[in-house]
Structures are given as structure tokens and as C-alpha cells.
């Protein structure tokens, strides 16, 4: 029986594929809930689940890889980039806040999902316990800590993310706003993007990792007006249909042959036509008479 070999080509940092520190801590590709849509999405935990990476696939039709003397049918190219695990944890905090009506709970009881058994690994990522205070209120009883979702802290944390994104866009000279449209036709340096363009663009990028309701709240928190779609054009008026027969609104009999003759008579004549009209035509034959059949002669 032939051995089926599945090979994935990845663009990833060295930290994503560090050698395992223990035999049971190899890098793990697994599906978790997308923090924006709640749908299954592929992620990667590095060795020991110390860091989370987002996995995105670049796929084109009719694309394969040549490996030695074989052809790998799956021609996808995977891009692996670091991701803040707080975005995924935030999804479960908001869900628990709605279900438990804002009660404090241990994190290991909040970040649970029967459909995604690898979900608790999010809490093992480095610095999660240190930075969880950016999105939760914390209460400590004895040696145990309890948390609940805080929208106020979360919006402050997300605003920092937006500002960091804006800074990265500017430092890398990423075109946004009107410069994207103008760069094809004129020198983009002649147009300066407004700060609002950068903030709105950064908000759109961050919104890909948070629920829609939170994205709208963040938009208000940033002081950005919500963009409204243009109003649809009114439909064209339709003529009312009726069973009554349609009668002509004008008297078309005025266009009969007599009127046409009169109209022709009233048309202006050229000088040559006027001179020809004054010639005496008596005794003259019409030109058509010369092309007619000859009369039969009697024998």
C-alpha cells in the first residue's frame, strides 16, 4: 500500500518551529474558534504552547509542488504569523459575561470549549496571566484569582492596538485613504493622508479579530463616525396599465398624400430647376417613351 505524504510549505519565524523541549511538546497545528466569527480557524502553537500563531493559506487553482520526482497536489502556501492570544480569550470572556451575568470565574472555567479541545492551551501562552488584566476585572480570594470581562478596559486596550497599528502603517509607508487611489496616476507624496484615514484603516484590521458588536463600540470609542452606504436611487416611474384601449393623441390624417404633394410643391427650387420649368414642353416626349416596347406593325 503506497504511503501518502502530506507536505505543507510554510513561511514562519524560527520561534514558530522551535525544537520541542520535551517529547510531548511538539509544535501543534489545531483549529480554534475565530474570535470575530466564531467559526473554525487554523492556528499553530509552538513548542510547549508558549506562543500562538495565526495560519493563513495562499491558494490558487491548478497549483502544485514538485518534490524530487513526485508532485504534491496540494499547492497551498501557508503563512504563519504571531498572534496575541488575548483576542481568542476575549471571545470566551464576552460569552461567559453574557451567560453568567457578569460573575467572577476562574479563567480555566471560562476558556473551555467542547468542540475545540485545544482551547485551554491559550492559557499556557507566555504572559497571558500577566496581561489578562487589560481586558478583565480581577478579584483574588485566598490563593485563587477570579476574572470577569471588562468592556471599559478592553476598549482602552484595543485603542492601544489601533495606535500601534497606525504607527506601523506610517513607519512602513503603507498607503491608505486617498493615496491608494491616487498613487496610480500621480506622485503619492503630493497627497498626505489624514490621521482619520490611518485610524479608520487600523480599526478595520483590528476588527478582523473581535466580534462585530465590539467593533462598533470601538468605532465610537475612537471618535470615528460610522460610514453610511449611499442611499439607493429611486426606482423609475412605471406607466399605469389600463384595460381601456389607447387612442391616438394627434390627428395623423394631416400626413396624407395630398398634404405631402403640397409640401413638395412648397419646397424651394434651385436656379436650374426654375429655368427648366419655364421651357415649353409641348411636342416633347417623356424620356420613358424611348425605353418602351416598339408598337407592332401590320403586315
Unreliable segments (pLDDT under 50, ≥5 consecutive)? 1-9
CATH architecture of the domain at 9-149: Single Sheet
Determine and state the CATH class of the domain at 9-149. Answer: Mainly Beta
Beta percentage is: 15-25%
Specify the helix fraction band.
25-40%
CATH names the topology of the domain at 9-149 as N-terminal domain of TfIIb
Structural class by SSE content: alpha+beta
Order of SSEs, N→C? Answer: EEEEEEEHHHEEHHHHHH
Largest sheet: 5 strands, mixed
* Annotation field: number of helices: 9
Widest beta sheet: strand line-up: 1-7-4-3-2
Instruction: Give the mean pLDDT.
Output: 77
Q: Rough shape?
A: elongated
Termini gap: 113 Å
Based on CA atoms alone, the radius of gyration comes out at 41 Å
Strand tally: 9
Write the layout of secondary structure elements.
Blueprint: E1 9-11, E2 28-33, E3 40-45, E4 52-58, E5 65-67, E6 70-72, E7 77-83, H1 86-99, H2 107-110, H3 128-131, E8 136-141, E9 144-149, H4 151-171, H5 178-182, H6 195-206, H7 212-221, H8 257-265, H9 271-277
Parallel strand pairs: 1-7
Antiparallel strand pairs: 2-3, 3-4, 4-7, 5-6, 8-9
Helix pairs in contact: 4-6
Protein architecture, described:
The chain is of the alpha+beta class. Among the domains are: 141 residues, N-terminal domain of TfIIb (Single Sheet); 62 residues, no CATH class. The chain is 29% helix and 16% strand. It contains 9 helices and 9 strands. The chain has a 5-stranded mixed β-sheet, with no helix packed on it. Strands 5-6 form a two-stranded antiparallel sheet. It has a two-stranded antiparallel ribbon with strand order 8-9. Strand 5 and strand 6 form a beta hairpin. Helix 4 packs across helix 6. The longest helix has 21 residues. It is elongated. The N and C termini lie far apart (113 Å). The N terminus is likely disordered.
Amino acid at each position: 500500500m503506497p504511503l501518502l505524504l502530506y507536505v505543507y510549505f510554510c513561511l514562519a519565524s524560527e520561534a514558530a518551529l522551535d525544537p520541542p523541549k520535551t517529547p510531548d511538546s511538539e509544535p501543534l497545528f489545531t483549529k480554534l474558534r475565530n474570535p470575530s466569527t466564531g467559526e473554525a480557524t487554523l492556528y499553530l502553537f509552538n513548542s510547549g504552547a508558549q506562543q500562538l500563531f495565526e495560519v493563513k493559506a495562499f491558494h490558487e487553482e491548478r497549483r502544485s509542488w514538485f518534490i524530487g520526482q513526485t508532485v504534491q497536489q496540494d499547492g497551498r502556501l501557508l503563512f504563519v504569523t504571531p498572534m496575541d492570544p488575548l483576542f481568542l480569550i476575549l471571545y470566551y470572556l464576552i460569552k461567559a459575561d453574557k451567560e453568567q451575568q457578569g460573575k467572577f470565574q476562574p479563567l480555566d472555567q471560562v476558556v473551555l470549549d467542547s468542540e475545540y479541545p485545544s482551547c485551554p492551551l491559550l492559557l499556557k501562552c507566555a504572559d497571558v496571566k500577566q496581561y489578562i488584566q487589560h481586558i478583565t476585572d480581577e478579584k483574588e480570594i485566598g490563593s485563587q484569582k477570579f476574572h470577569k470581562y471588562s468592556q471599559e478596559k478592553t476598549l482602552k486596550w484595543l485603542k492601544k492596538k489601533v495606535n500601534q497599528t497606525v504607527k506601523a502603517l506610517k513607519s512602513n509607508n503603507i498607503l491608505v485613504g486617498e493615496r491608494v487611489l491616487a498613487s496610480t496616476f500621480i506622485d503619492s507624496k503630493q497627497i498626505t493622508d489624514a490621521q482619520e484615514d490611518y485610524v479608520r484603516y487600523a480599526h478595520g484590521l483590528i476588527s478582523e479579530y473581535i466580534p462585530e458588536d465590539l467593533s462598533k463600540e470601538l468605532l465610537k470609542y475612537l471618535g470615528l463616525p460610522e460610514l453610511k452606504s449611499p442611499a439607493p436611487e429611486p426606482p423609475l416611474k412605471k406607466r399605469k396599465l389600463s384595460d381601456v384601449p389607447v387612442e391616438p393623441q394627434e390627428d395623423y390624417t394631416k400626413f396624407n398624400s395630398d398634404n405631402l404633394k403640397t409640401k413638395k410643391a412648397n419646397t424651394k427650387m434651385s436656379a436650374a430647376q426654375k429655368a427648366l420649368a419655364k421651357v415649353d414642353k409641348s411636342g416633347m416626349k417623356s424620356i420613358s417613351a424611348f425605353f418602351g416596347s416598339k408598337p407592332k406593325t401590320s403586315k
